[in-house]
DNA sequence: TCCAGCATGTAACGAGTTACATGATTCG
DNA sequence: CGAATCATGTAACTCGTTACATGCTGGA
């Protein structure tokens, strides 16, 4: 019954490399944000609980002369827990919530112009996102293939790009089929 | 700042046709569940609040001899609110959470067998889902095109099918590229 | 010196899930 | 007559977001 996926993600990230709460937030922003997000207000309390359970431990590092940075590292118990999550716990399919398609559902045939407008706007948003993803891939993986230890990062980007391309293709196909009915 | 998307979805559904909380739950299960879900424990209190705001009104219908069924219908104020949501409020891109790709990210290059296992399992799940969607389309839209007033339903099914096909294609492509690195 | 960014936390609230609780109806 | 389904609600909890709150660092 217990889920709490975020704690396992934090644990997995810390296992790769000792990190602070702030560092973790950056990873969400730069690497895995396409498939999971968390605010720092959720990250810090979760780290606290993980330390209480003995899955991670922390040491204070001083930045500059005063600023305290709490760097976490994984414990043997923590490693067991990540492995259990990775290999023993089934991952159910992601449950999506997308209000865009619901708006289409509600507008229906009585307003073709509105359908077209909403599809076009969604197309614009997905194009922007896709361009942004292409640009990032260009910077990080100029060879268009994974490097040394960054296969995970490459797969996530590739998966996100694939998702956007497919969504755009569907929107274009649907636009082309207008007027419906 | 205020969002509460669920209330607009309930409102939109009730606008199409007077419905009870139970009926609404069935629509989530049968029509729009691929892109939004809600339990009855969330639906009933939301309906109550909508009635308090005067966006919907209810009448009691008797089923059999005793069972009370509360059928809601939309008010003029409610219609205004749906329209405002549909046409004036921007719909941001859906934010996805998918632990499957994160597991791939964490496993990385050190265990090719595990990567293959997890991809194959995910492939199995998406194939099942896709077959299920095909079967439903066959039953509801045997002509493979939208009918009379069911364009919204058709678009949702079509979008869900497209999503599953694309995900499967990506999984197959990634499996074919193994071993990585 | 000022400002963006580094760094960490808590509080309040809203959204969503699971469990608890009850009773009627319909069909085999 | 029994089981699945129809029908409605509340309680307790977890998850997630926004806002509040504070202070340091590094570079222009």
From TrEMBL, chains A, B:
Pfam family name, one: PadR
Domain Transcription regulator PadR N-terminal, chain residue ranges per copy: 10-82
Domain Transcription regulator PadR C-terminal positions: 97-178
Coiled coil: none
Name of the protein: PadR family transcriptional regulator
Source organism: Listeria aquatica
């Amino acid at each position: 019954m217990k889920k709490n996926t975020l704690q396992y993600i934090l644990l997995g990230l810390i296992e790769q490399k000792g990190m602070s709460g702030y560092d973790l937030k950056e990873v969400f922003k730069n690497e895995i944000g396409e498939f999971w997000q968390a605010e720092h207000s959720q990250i810090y309390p979760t780290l606290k609980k993980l330390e209480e359970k003995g899955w991670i431990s922390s040491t204070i590092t001083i930045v500059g002369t005063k600023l305290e940075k709490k760097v976490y590292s994984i414990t043997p118990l923590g490693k067991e827990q990540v492995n259990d999550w990775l290999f023993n716990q089934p991952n159910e399919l992601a449950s999506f919530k997308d209000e865009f398609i619901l708006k289409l559902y509600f507008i229906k045939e009585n307003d073709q112009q509105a359908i077209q407008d909403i599809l076009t706007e969604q197309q614009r948003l997905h194009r922007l996102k896709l361009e942004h993803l292409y640009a990032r891939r260009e910077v990080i993986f100029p060879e268009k293939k994974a490097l040394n230890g960054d296969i995970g990062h490459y797969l996530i980007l590739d998966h996100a790009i694939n998702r956007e391309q497919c969504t755009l293709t569907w929107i274009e196909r649907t636009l082309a089929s207008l007027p419906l009915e």
